[in-house]
Specification:
about 0% strand
Length: about 45
Amino acid sequence: MATAAQTVIAVSTILGRPRAPAVAEALARDAERIRRAIFALHG
């Protein structure tokens, strides 16, 4: 399951640090790269 920008927006809003859509997209891309790297090493 990929990390979506909507997930980043939701979590950051819950934590009291809402993000702009462009920032959320970038964070989601980075999070997805990290998730894939972890899965490749531990999958």
